[in-house]
Design brief:
By secondary structure, the protein is α/β, with parallel strands linked by helices. It has 9 helices and 15 strands. The strands form 3 sheets. Strands 3, 4, 5, 6, 7, 14 and 15 form a 7-stranded mixed sheet that branches. Strands 10-9-8-11-12-13 form a 6-stranded parallel sheet, sandwiched between helices. It is globular, with a radius of gyration of 21 Å.
């Protein structure tokens, strides 16, 4: 059986607070390129890996996350990626197929038959898009905005972490739906990106705002109809003061809270009662049945240039820890992707 070297990014030990590069190791194992007789697994050559904020939680010992695939020290990280099928014992995939789905942070991965993989049928767009705009982040933006918030033309939309993998799409979807949209980001360059390339009506740098409530009142004098929540904490507290009657909040992430040993409290929840606000958390994995509908909606917009996507691509597995850690201090500019192999 052909054995090859297999470089991996493994978790050394559980992270506490902000993940550090030293929490991970680059190791070299081996893997057989032949499937065992009767196996129904799929052997992938990983091409791109996705760096996503939720991965920090899986690197930590957080109570209640035991069933969400938390990482084990000494084992490779797992996450979304794009790969080519080298061998398949599964009837749905054949050698040479391009797929995206959950894989490991290594050069080659053996994926079990119960793990969902999506076959890539459209290759007239960059393959890296299937870690972002055409993968999990794109689906997250689509489900959280359209399915949960049911936008109406003319409504006022606020997006936090708006230049990230999900936020940049929510803003563009809001414009396609005829809404007014404002985003917050953490640098002048990211604010410029939102306003000048991604088509947001307005944007602000939250790091320069001493009073978030005042910033939101300035941008939304009549209040907010829809808030796409990516950060939590003080931002959520200020948003609650500025929501309109029957407003909707789609809770996608809380990146400001992931690294805190003591999460911040939210004090303005009473607004949910007298403003009749609907706030709902969601996991995109519950809605993958909508993937064909999502592609039908989004692919024409990408091809016509009506939706654009900004990627920040790091190259080489050895640079994976730095790329992932950089997410938590905002070093990435757009969707953070790791290129593993150009084949």
């Amino acid at each position: 059986m052909a054995e090859v070297k297999n470089k991996q990014v493994v978790l050394k030990d559980y992270a506490t607070g902000f993940p550090k590069e030293s929490d991970m190791d680059i190791v070299e194992g081996t893997i057989s390129l032949n499937l065992p007789e009767g196996s129904n697994e799929v052997l992938l050559k990983n091409l791109y890996l996705s760096c996503d904020p939720y991965m920090q939680m899986l690197m930590s010992k957080i109570e209640g996350l035991e069933g969400f695939g938390t990482y084990a020290p000494g084992s490779p990280l797992t996450g979304y990626g794009v790969g080519r099928v080298l061998e398949s014992g599964h009837p749905d995939y054949k050698k040479g197929d391009l797929v995206w789905g959950i894989t490991k942070w290594e050069e080659y991965s053996l994926v079990s038959s119960d793990q969902t993989l999506f076959k890539i049928e459209h290759t007239d767009v960059p393959l890296s898009y299937y870690t972002g705009i055409l993968g999990m982040p794109g689906m997250t933006a689509y489900v959280g905005f359209f399915e949960l918030c049911s936008p109406k033309k003319g409504e006022k939309v606020f997006v936090s972490a708006a230049s990230g993998a999900v936020g940049q799409l929510v803003g563009q979807f809001a414009k396609l739906a005829g809404c007014y949209v404002v985003g917050s980001a953490g640098s002048k360059e990211k604010v410029d990106l939102l306003k000048n390339k991604l088509g947001f009506d307005e944007a602000f740098n939250y790091k320069e705002e001493s009073d978030l409530n005042a910033a939101l009142k300035r941008c939304f004098p009549e209040g907010i109809d829809i808030y796409f929540e990516n950060v939590g904490g003080k931002t959520l507290d200020a948003v609650l003061l500025n929501m309109r009657l029957h407003g909707r909040i789609s809770v996608c992430g809380m990146i400001s809270q992931y690294n805190l040993t003591q999460p911040e409290g939210v004090t303005n929840l009473a607004n949910m009662i007298f403003k009749r606000i609907r706030m709902q958390g969601f996991m995109v994995s519950d809605s993958y049945n909508l993937y064909p509908k999502f592609l039908e909606f989004l692919l024409p917009h990408i091809r016509e240039g009506k939706v654009v996507y900004v990627e920040d691509i790091a190259e080489g597995l050895e640079n994976g820890p730095a790329a992932l850690v950089g997410l938590y201090s905002g070093l990435n500019f757009g969707k953070q992707v790791l290129l593993v192999s150009r084949e």
